[in-house]
Amino acid sequence: MTSQEKISNKQFGSLVFSFLSGFSTLFLIEAKLIKQDVWMSYLLGITVSIGMLWLFVYAQKQYPHLSMAEIFDELLGKWFAKLALCLYLVYMLETGGAAYRALSFFYTTAILPNTPNIVLMFLIFLCTAYAVYLGLGTLARSIQVILPFFIVAIVIVSFFIVREIDTNPFLPQFQSRASEIVFGGMVTLAFPFGKAIIFGFILSRVKNVKKIFSSTAIPMALSGLYLLAVTYMVFGSLGFNLSHAATFPYFSAAQLVRFGEYMERIEIFVISIWTVFTLFEIIVIQYIFMLVAGHVFRIKETRFFVFPICLLFFAIAHKSFIRMMDLSLYILGIYPISSLLPIVIIPVLIAFLTLVKKPRGAKKSVKINPVG
Amino acid sequence: MNSIKKLLIAFSLLSLLAGCSPDVREISDTALVMSIGVDYDKENKKYTFTTYCILPAMPGGDKTGKLSEWVASGSGESFLDAAKNLRSRAGKSLIFQHAKFFIVGEEAARYSFYEIVDFLSRNRQIRITSYLIVSEGKAADKLQVKSDSGDLISNELLGKVRNEKEWGKSITMIIRDIVNLFPSQYRGYVTSRLSTAQSKSKPHEILILKGGAVFYKGKFIDWLDGNDTITVHLLSKKSRWKELEIAEVIHFQSLKLSVFYHVSNSVIHSSFVQGTPKMNIDIQLNATMGNMDHNLNLNRREVILQLEQAAARQMAAKIQKSIDHFQKGLKVDVLGFSDRFIQYHPKGWTMLKKDWDAVYPTIPVQVHVSVKIEQLGMIQSMGVE
Amino acid sequence: MEQRPEPIRTSVDLNVEKLLQRFADNEHLVVRNIHKEEGSPLASIVYLSVLIDEKRLNQQIIRKISEDLRLQNGSAEDTIMESIHSLGEIKVLPQIDAAVSMISDAGILIFVEGHSKAYGINLPGYETRSIEEPKLELNVRGPREGFTEDLQKNLGLVYRRLKTSELKSKAYLIGKQSQTSLILLYLENKVDGAVLKELKSRIESINMDVVSDSAEIEEWIQDSTFSPFPQILNTERPDRVVSALNRGKIAIMMDGTPIALITPTTFFELLHPSEDQFERFYFANFMRAIRMITLFISLFGPSLYIALTTFHLEMIPTPLMMTFLSTKAGIPFPSYVEAFLMEIAFEVLRDASLRLPRIAGQSVSIVGALIIGEAAVQSGIVSRPMVIVVAMTGIASFTIPSFNTAIALRMLRFPLMLLAATSGVFGLSMGMFAIILHLCSLRSCGVLFLDPVESASWRNSLKKYFLLPVRYRRISRVKKHE
To answer: Are residues B42 and B163 in the same domain?
Structure first.
């Protein structure tokens, strides 16, 4: 079993990038909200989420041999740790459910209008369950196979979209109020970037713990850059009004891609690769859910729980966000606030406790040493 | 082992599902909609939805499958209703993905354009790169017209749109741009105008794509003639003027010269001097000599320079005239001056936008054209003696 | 039936009797006694007449012994011992069991009165094929020798090409009944010790009665039994074995089969023929790039066609759509049924042409392809584009040199077609993802199966996937165990 297989920093970085970049470009909600000033919100969102992850990295470095869940135990005590971890479990469930739904909504809206959602979600379920079963090492390797294809596809699409841009869509700058930007930042933090916090739980599985911060922060920054580039292209090629009106702006922009007069609507190909890319988010969430749940409920052999856990996600997704609008209302209304607890508050708490407890721990080890 | 079992079960389940998918559409059961005509009867509040389809001629008949044309219309309370009512006449399932043209009747464009745009942008089957054209009179009639060349109407229309850049007297917009400009309260936009004319050689009427239809504040306002669409071409997106070729007759010292221009650069400058908006238009044209009716010694530098100046003056006057028509006649900002102010003078714009309709006709516009005669063609002049 | 090892007695008669017991009801066992005078035999020669070269036995061994006996100057037993030792490669066998296996392995056994040991000499007399051009892996350029069923000859082909003491071998006897010899070959300085250790333990765990081909060994030692993909390269080309050894791989050669196994193997090694190394490097790399495309086509060809023509009609260019419209008119079956029919027909034709004698086989495939295809189109059962797609897919799969990889790809086409018929490109991308995941999870003797793609840097992967000119081709070692 490959359950304790370690992954390289590069693989970890690729995983973080694909995790963040899959769904981020689907709705572009915050971009619709604050238009040309959205880059400030992105900047805010990325900075905060990198900072929060840094706190986890800091804690991890103090306890290099423990997994994050064990660090929680160490710092919070058994029962508080269980509570905190359960909060993360709930958070992952809602995020994963939303991702499930978003993907199937996208397909039923844009490509397969008559196919029932449940069929698509069932396929997603099968595929992701298989991936979770295969474990982290396989996952990390498969991202290395898929990432180049994704990049090539995106570059080709971008090349054709950029040709459609003729005025700088990011003008005029600084038209939004600060409160709007902060709200946009919160949305950005909640929706694409803050999710990266769950990578805290697999930090211990990365080979080189020393370089781990850079291999987390760089992909996150790149992912932000990618999101910004997409926003620029969408605004430039579709115009503000259409981007605002379109349900899936990036998809609409990709429809503009055409080779000469005849080859049109090439976006299906891109979407098929993009779909695989988005699956990584669901898979990673389910995988980490499995790890954390395994720790909380003291399950030794988590392998047997892959299927039930993925089934749980499937069921949650099937029963929630029945309407398309529910999803955007949730992302705009509830999610920015509800996700603050796992994304910001707990990491701050953990880092604070690490800082407080560290000297004592050091003393302990000094005391123990002569005895041992 | 386990995963294999799981996979096997999954696949056997899938094999049951295969083909049951409600989204399957077999090509053999489809009619390909190539263009769509939309009409609106204001008095009865009825919509008419006309499709121009092609389908295989005889199922299982000849070896070489031939295609036949089929025009059908349906009417109803709303756009979708009309489209659905059409199904009562259709013997095949209709596929809209390949519809390249939306021909909107004059009345529909004037009174129910919002619904049309909404339908077009909401429907997933419709490409946002298809063209929207306004027809004189009813759109349904236009789709019934036989093509001049004997080709399919949709192919002929596509050819006409493709030829646009070679003469500039029509300007066809794609749905994406219309949807994007539609909500704007400040600027208007122009798309092509489709009319019919009596063919000289054939007994039936033929389709003509010339001129433009101006939209402003969500509805059709007025027609535009061919010369004005050239100005719109020249001052619009780079992708348009980059490929444009316009012919022009220059009167110079009792000579008559024909040239065609390529645009090498076209810039609109906006400025805000002491609260008054001002526009500067700068166009650089490259000319290629087409023909001339008398001999002119083109080897002399000053002759060329004079010729270039004359050509530039003439062109500037023409553009100025069009712009005057936009400003004073139509009172519609079809060139997107308002966008310039929004993007580059956001502060000034907040004052302007309240009474933009009153300000727009009074904005001074300076047109500057420079012409370079770069190419003379295969001969320089026809011999002196 | 296994008992504790039975020693060989000093009495020839007793020993022969033991052997006759063991080989009861075997009519081919021959016992020849050597007498000096009347009385009990001085020595006995025992062998299976079908296995050994009796001519050589008569002309060389028996004649030598009897001549020596005639000119004897010591005791008869000593003389016989002397003449035996002068015969060359003899094996001293202390037990009856070893003696039995010696006889089974095309050997003769000599018992000498008064010696509690048996002496064995290998004297194979069965016919083997001579070295021929490989049948399956054809090359335009490169060596023309292929392995035969004879292990000794095959080993000779390999040793001749690698004149170094680093070349090590380890022999095993596999199969309780068949006692087939199996040789592990590797270069000491190149091989990864962990992989070697793992492989040895796997071979030792083999528990079979009869091994008839290396395919069974392959099945036994591969990492993932239920994967559709072969994880071990097989070849009948000695040059391929040698270049693999040089890259730190381990070759497994078995008696009785011309197919050698090479492990650890990566997916991309299965995709490229050995000939690539002998071509000019531009051409070789061009072909490698092409093979990447054929890999894609042979896996996704029909399913992509199904997805496009039933779900995503917008993607087909309008003029092509018009052509499809006219060609598909009147076809009674939906696209996926059409595709299934044609794919199955193709597999049937392929298999039929393989099983038939060579000359008839060719005509079957041509007749099948031409007549059935054309008739199907003419009568309006399948559409022309479908025939093109299926034919293209089939031909594309033939460019992949590894036969069983091509089969794996062809097999995976069917579930992918189902997925495409169920949910179009969505299902297809799910299927593609599952296949990629599966490939990523595979290992070949502990080494990642998708090695060049997954190695640390993409530049490195490209270097491994494409060939550099020979001058710059640094031999990279097999990736260490992770």
So the answer is: yes
Q: For residues B39 and B144, state if they share a domain.
A: yes
Q: Do A276 and C429 touch (CB under 8 A)?
A: yes
- Residues of chain B numbered 16-45 and touching chain C (CB < 8 Å): 17-21, 23-28, 30, 32, 34
Place of tokens 């041999």: A65
Alpha carbon distance C170, C185 (integer Å): 7
| Nearest CB neighbour to B176, from listed A129, A166, A238 | A238
Contact yes or no for C462/B60 (Cβ under 8 A): no
Total tally of structural domains belonging to chain B: 2
Q: What is the ipTM of this complex?
A: 0.89
User: Would you state the structure tokens that stand for residue B234, as one six-digit string?
Assistant: 């020249």
CATH, residue B279:
3.30.300.210
In this predicted structure, the answer to whether residue C46 has a pLDDT above a threshold of 80 is: yes
Tell me if C338 sits within 8 A of C302, measured CB to CB: no
Residues of A in contact with B17 (CB under 8 A): 119
User: Do B251 and B217 share a structural domain?
Assistant: no
Nearest CA in chain A to B124: A110
Average pLDDT over residues A53-66: 87
Residue found by looking up tokens 């291999």 in the block = A215
Amino acid identity of residue C205, one-letter, is S
Collapsing DSSP to helix, strand or coil, A166 comes out as coil
Considering the domain architecture, whether residues B208 and B66 belong to the same structural domain is answered as: yes
User: How many Cα atoms within 13 Å fall on the side-chain side of residue A125?
Assistant: 22
Percent of chain C topping pLDDT 70: 94
B286 shares a domain with B194: no
Q: Is C70 helix (H, G, I), strand (E, B) or coil?
A: helix
Q: How far apart are CA C17 and CA B160, in angstroms?
A: 104
Please say whether the beta carbons of B189 and B178 come within 8 A. yes
| Amino acid occupying residue C206 | I
Q: Is A109 on the interface with B (CB under 8 A)?
A: yes
* Angle in degrees, 0-180, between the axes of helices A9-27 and A136-162, rounded to the nearest 10: 50
Mutation for testing the B interface, residue in A126, A168, A248, A263 having most B CBs under 10 Å: A126
Instruction: Please write the tens of the pLDDT for every residue from A316-342.
Output: 988 888 887 888 888 888 888 888 888
Q: Are residues B31 and B132 in the same domain?
A: yes
Chain A interface test: which of B120, B179, B243 (most A C-beta within 10 Å)? B179
pLDDT per position in chain B (385 positions), as tens? 556 666 667 666 655 555 566 777 888 788 889 999 999 998 888 899 999 988 876 554 444 457 788 888 888 888 888 888 888 888 788 888 888 899 999 999 999 899 889 988 888 888 888 899 999 989 988 888 888 777 888 888 888 888 888 888 888 999 988 998 898 888 899 999 999 888 777 778 888 899 999 999 888 989 998 888 888 888 887 777 888 888 888 888 888 888 889 998 888 888 888 778 888 999 999 999 888 888 887 778 888 899 899 999 999 999 999 999 999 988 898 888 888 888 888 888 888 888 888 888 989 999 999 999 888 888 877 765 5
d(CA C244, CA C59): 43
Give how far Cα C476 sits from Cα of A138, B343, C47, C251, C266, Å: 23, 58, 50, 17, 13
Domain that holds residue B337: 242-379
Domain locations in chain C as residue ranges: 12-122, 151-265, 277-463
B160 in any annotated domain: yes
Best residue in C436, C447, C461, C462 for a mutation probing chain A (most A CBs within 10 Å): C436
